[in-house]
Amino acid sequence: MKQNMQPVVMLAALLVVALSACGGSASNPPAPTQAPTQSPATPTPTAGATGNAAYKTLTGHSDSVTSVAFSPDSKTLASASKDDTIRLWDVATGQSVKTLQGPNPNEPFHSVAFSPDGKLVAGASDDSNVYLWDVASGQLSKTLSTAGQVTSVAFSPNGKTVAAGNGDNNVYLWNVASGQQLWKTFSNNYNGVSSIAFSPDGTTIVADNGDNGGAVLLNAATGAISKQFADANGDAISVVAFSPDGKTVAASINEAFVFFDVDSGQEVKKFPESSTEALALAFSPDGKVIASGDQDYNVRLWNMASGVLVGQLTGNTEPVNAVAYSPDGKYLASGGDDKTVRIWQISK
């Protein structure tokens, strides 16, 4: 009987050896092979990104940067400064390609804008003038005069007119081709108009009404006031912007944003209640995000639908006076009292 058991024992032993060689046992089968763990790819910065590194930091201005604007093709950035210059920058390289100056020395620039065809740059000057330069040559093309410090400038969407708000409490409109003043209108603002914007269809201009606690909509053809917006608390509005669809006007009031319906003139939304004031506002091209340049040195990105903070761009060392999205939605530019211009890459 023992002799008959010996082959069985030997067979069992061979089976155990075979299983061991396969990395398992009769009672515990081998664990399934797992794919090696891969490190996640670095995410592309988006409109909801938070970060400390700018895509490019542009230096060259010797005083505060007051305004920034992208060319229609998103390849060039213009920056206005209290150092009496407007600089044009190559977005791809970060190099300054032109420096524009008015004929009068020691006159800071407060606002800058590209014409819709990208051929002209307008600068709002402390010397009461709006200057138009030819982008290709850098030569001064026209001088448009007002009666006070010019604080804001904007081209109409068709490029045929240019508007400006200034310290004499007026909004002006000129024909770009002829330089002829078409109208000016009194804004009832105690401290002058500090911010203006055209509606996307070009029929309306919004201007802040400063200490009067609201903003006005002006008929772009006549300059007549068509509607007035007012904060519920009567607080002063310092910055205004049209949404890309033209249905909403955003305004900075103290430490919050207020949004007005253009048709009804009613306040429809208010956010956030923060501890800092927004010095500049800009809608993303799709209207889903609004960016703020803030007194506390940050650029913040807010979801328009929810009012939730979705991103914060840091690195500025002084208040941020200006923000602008590139038309292609890839970049956000900022400028501030630290004399720098920063370009943030927010999508690819």
Question: TL;DR?
Answer:
The protein is mainly beta and 348 residues long. It has one helix spanning 2-21, and strands spanning 56-58, 65-70, 76-81, 86-90, 96-100, 109-114, 120-125, 129-134, 140-145, 150-155, 161-166, 170-175, 181-186, 196-198, 204-208, 214-219, 225-230, 239-242, 248-253, 256-261, 267-271, 278-283, 289-294, 299-303, 309-313, 320-325, 331-336, 341-345.
Strand content: 35-45%
Characterize the largest beta sheet: strand count, sense, and whether it forms a barrel.
4 strands, antiparallel
Roughly how many Å apart are the termini?
Answer: 81 Å
Binned, the helix content reads: under 10%
Strand order of the largest sheet: 1-28-27-26
What is the number of helical segments per DSSP (H or I, 4+ residues)?
Answer: 1
- What would you give as the CATH superfamily of the domain at 64-286? YVTN repeat-like/Quinoprotein amine dehydrogenase
> Strand-and-helix sequence, N→C?
HEEEEEEEEEEEEEEEEEEEEEEEEEEEE
Structural class: mainly beta
Radius of gyration: 29 Å
Low-confidence stretches: 1-50
Tertiary shape? globular
The fold-level CATH name of the domain at 64-286 is: Methylamine Dehydrogenase, Chain H
Instruction: State the name of the first-level CATH class of the domain at 64-286.
Output: Mainly Beta
CATH architecture type of the domain at 64-286: 7 Propeller
Question: Mean pLDDT score, rounded?
Answer: 84
Find the count of extended strands (DSSP E, 2+ residues).
28
